[in-house]
Queue: 2 jobs
Job 1
Amino acid sequence: MLTNKIDFALIISVRNANPNGDPLNGNRPRINYDGYGEISDVCLKRKIRNRLMDMGLPVFVQSEDNSVDGYKSLKERADSVPELKEYSKKKDVANYAKKACQQWIDVRSFGQVFAFKAESKGEGVSVGIRGPVSIQSAFSVEPVNITSLQITKSVNSEPGEKKSSDTMGMKHRIDYGLYTTFGSINCQLAEKTDFSNEDAEYIKEALRTLFVNDSSSARPEGSMEVVKLIWWKHNSKQGQYSSAKVHRLVNITPLKPDAKSIDDYDIRIDSLEGLEAEIYDGV
């Protein structure tokens, strides 16, 4: 079992990329009302899950374009485990949750809601699991500048089209931004999901290598980088300090008004008595 509370912080550099498009705003990079860039916690968890899958670990919530087991829905994946199907029939919520946590690392890390309709009378399932790993949305240190480009298509999609360049679209990117996100791993919830010290090491490595195998047209290779991962391991299950106090140890100050690279920031990690910070550079 996990024996020590853990807090962590992640510093992310974004250059000429769209770190997390907003579907309600034409897929422009997410920003808040003050103009600060945002990467949602859901987006970050998706990337963590992808890295865990790259490590060969079983993951329950797989994206359609990155599925490794051939199942096309969460229900199919859950029903592929005979014990879960049996517990579902018996309405055995406790054992259903326990087996799901044993089966998939993301379930015992982040938790999961299993809510599937019944195929026949009495076979539906509704199980909620709270996970010990929590992560916040990432926000930029300063307001970000968004550049939008109009793009055209240079080939016809269908036979008989006369002008291939008639189809136009937009592409958006962040010129440069430095983002921070914070998270914690709770020992009390870890006991309920059987989350272990070994699982915590997998989460740590997933965070450190977050953007490996994550390139796309919106995020070209090298455009997003984990600058630093700061990992605090407390000396007890409860922890010596609150997570909020620990997270405030990360202080980032721009060295110039228009920062364009990581070198334009001063990054300082303060300390608290009795709490040592492990600092890792990203890949």
Note: DSSP finds eight helices and 14 strands in the chain.
Job 2
Amino acid sequence: MSRYHTLRYRPFVAPSPPDLLVLHAVRLLGYADTERVASRFRLDRAQVEEHLEDARASGWVDRSSFSGRSGWFLTPRGKLEDEHRLAAELDSTGRRDDLRRAYDDFLVLNGRLLQAVTDWQTRPVPGDPLAANDHQDLRWDRRTLATLTEICVGLGPLATTLAGVLTRFGGYDARFALALEEAQHGDHRWVDSIELDSCHTVWFQLHEDLLATLGVQRGAGPA
């Protein structure tokens, strides 16, 4: 019996408290307005706004505006507070080792994802191994999309395992699949655009979620 099958039927795990989800959403999004923060974990906007103001009063988040945009971002104190709460939440489940093993499995897929995004953005030509991909070679793009499809399949059981440890990990596989479907229908932006909930955006957030929860530095090896 596989590890994923064994872990899938663990007892129900209580959802994370809203104030933690709000703080963590700001971290995952990097810079976002109140609406995006609320939508990240499907929270009530008015409640999210209240939690954001409380977090700002505590020095954990701040708000800035530029180029006609306004958004929230995490302060260094807020990052430490987020990590402290995430560690306490994970330890309360008694399943840190399960999450570490899942993270090691994620790293295997992560290497393939990074290569797929590189292949999507570049296509070597004689004299220029890093030439930008103009997406005129459909066979090249189809091969990259096929790799992303394989990654999507692998993400399914991994996401189930993660959500079985902490419910806030739920949904990454569905978001990745939706982005991939849009890309397969011809909208290239859904592979790597930072302006959309693209495959790369979803993957980056999942990676950051795992790193923050486990207290691992980006670029580190297996947990």
Note: The beta strands are 61-66, 69-74.
